[in-house]
Amino acid sequence: MREQINKVKNFGQFLNEDVMGTNKYYELLDNILNSGIDREFAEDDLKYKIKSLKEIKKKSHLKLYRIIFVKDKNNIDYVNLGHHFVENPYDFHEEMVDYLYGNAKKENSDINPTDVWLVTVSTPTNNIDYDETLLTYSLHPNESEITILNPTLLKLEKVDSFYED
Length: 165
Fold this sequence. Notes:
By secondary structure, the protein is α+β, with helices and mostly antiparallel strands.
């Protein structure tokens, strides 16, 4: 797997090229196929992902979401919100929330599954790590994670309870 990660580089430049039929395209496709996804679906999905990233790159800013587990939203570290976000809050499916809760519980045994906050931020689209976003997608095609380069460029929009009352 590490070889696959090291082979595929420069996606930011890759998104400016005609990508179909290039070695980079097939390396990404191979990553997706290694996850067990049907070839036809994998090709269509990769083309769609590349197209959607190209559309994002044309915008000036993008709204992103992250969930954070803490007892009180005042305990969120707003300076270090992290690098991993999604473009749509509905991407936080039950299995993902459970997985993230398990990780958070290791850090803080006092939290409960309902101690989760939806953080909404905006960032310039040139703050997106397109390389890592596309690579991560190819390795985990069931996730829609967007990786940002510099968390200090995030603008906090709002924080809400993830489970609306």
